[in-house]
Amino acid sequence: MREVQLIKQFEERINNGESIEPKDWMPEKYRKQLIRMMSQHAHSEIVGMLPEGNWITRAPNLRRKLALLAKVQDEAGHGLYIYSATETLGVDRSDLIEQLLTGKAKYSSIFNYPTLSWADIGVIGWLVDGAAIVNQTMLAKGSFGPYSRAMIRICKEENFHKKQGFEIVATLAKGTPEQKEMVQDAVNRWWWPSLMMFGPHDSDSPNSEDLMKWKVKLNSNDELRQRFVDLTIPQAKAVGLTVPDPDLKYNEETGHWEFGEINWEEFWNVVKGNGLMNKDRLRARNKAHEEGAWVREAARAYAEKRETAN
Amino acid sequence: MSEGILWEVFTQSKNGAPFTHAGSLHAADEEMALQNARDVYTRRGEAVNIWVVKSEEIVASSPGESGPFFDPGNDKAYRHPQFYKVPKGVRGI
Ligand SMILES: [Fe+2]
Ligand SMILES: [Fe+2]
């Protein structure tokens, strides 16, 4: 069949809301965009364990420590679901991991900011996982079956992440003046990077058009960002915290919170690898990979030994 | 080559329910595949049983030919109860 006709059929399927499965015909560009997007997403889940892992040993009590351990374990699971889903497109996981370890692959810039205080752990759960939920809820309705199914599974788990984070935030916000100051400081540092998680303005997002045409994404970056702000501001108010935006105001007519301009220079700077923690994160990932080599070797040797014994 | 063999994971949500595909994973052998499947896909009581199957051993129909392949079943309306008429007033048929 001719390519033009195949594309036409493919787009008809997309428009009918059908789900595309790995072995179905798909345009090369659809496959490539999905591999890029899904592997970046998987890498983000894996690197995302580092800033929070930093606080596991210093959690203030056992309840918090259990929650944080479980959350970080979930993020490892999320990475695995998405790597598996990406592999259905015909790429090898070890190649993807190689791209991460050598710094060729991108992951969400939010994880290149440092976690300076315990309050950061609360704020990450609330804002960073909160932003991720807004994005992933949309992705769960996307056109590629394995990706959307992984997102449904992930969204179920994310609600716990957000809630445990908000519980930390709410507790500190009604604590001592020092605790309140600590959590407000964390919000001040994480607010703008959280808004940046949705990516550049639609007009500056080169991939957005294709992704939306093929229903990999159903909403634009700016739409999702607005949804997140509308959702989050009342939550901040409820616990007496503010966000560091002098331009923030509620528009009675539209029912939306209007917010100030994002510092895009900072955004691109971190994307390009000049964030505070870019080098540190890659070093930590590489170290973990190298130090885990013996486990992979042992598992392989054991499997081989059993194979020959049979 | 990725580490280990690729396995497909099927989970059963409760006794008597069908096994459904949950995802896939890499593991060196079946024991490790089962343990990894438990850790990756059932952290919140999603399953009471797990199957792991080597991906390469699954035989699948090809999506491109799904039309003609499933055709034989589609034109047999007489396999469905709606095909048959029941006299008015008869119940429980
Ligand atoms: Fe996650
Ligand atoms: Fe999360």
Topology:
The complex is a heterodimer of chains A (310) and B (93).
Chain A: H1 3-15, H2 28-47, H3 49-53, H4 62-87, H5 93-101, H6 118-139, H7 145-173, H8 177-196, H9 208-213, H10 221-238, E1 249-251, E2 256-258, H11 264-274, H12 278-291, H13 293-309
Chain B: E1 5-12, E2 19-27, H1 30-41, E3 49-54, H2 66-74
Antiparallel strand pairs in B: 1-2, 1-3
The structure holds fe (ii) ion (FE2) (2 copies).
Described by strand count, sense and barrel closure, the largest sheet of chain B is: 3 strands, antiparallel
Distance between the termini of chain A: 48 Å
Helix/strand structural class of chain B: alpha+beta
**Gross morphology of chain A:** globular
Q: Which ligands does the model contain, each kind named once?
A: fe (ii) ion
Oligomer: heterodimer
Number of strands of chain A: 2
Tell me the strand percentage band of chain B: 15-25%
What is the CA-atom radius of gyration of chain B, in angstroms?
21 Å
CATH architecture of chain B: Roll
Structural domain tally of chain B: 1
In terms of structural class, how would the helical and strand content of chain A be classed?
mainly alpha
Helix content of chain B: 10-25%
* Count of alpha and pi helical runs of chain B: 2
Give the topology string of chain A: H per helix, E per strand.
Answer: HHHHHHHHHHEEHHH
Strands of the widest sheet of chain B, in order across it, are: 2-1-3
Sheet with most strands: strand arrangement of chain A: 1-2
CATH homologous superfamily heading of chain B: Phenylacetic acid degradation B
Secondary structure: helix percent of chain A: 55-70%
What is the rounded Rg of chain A?
21 Å
CA-CA gap between termini of chain B: 59 Å
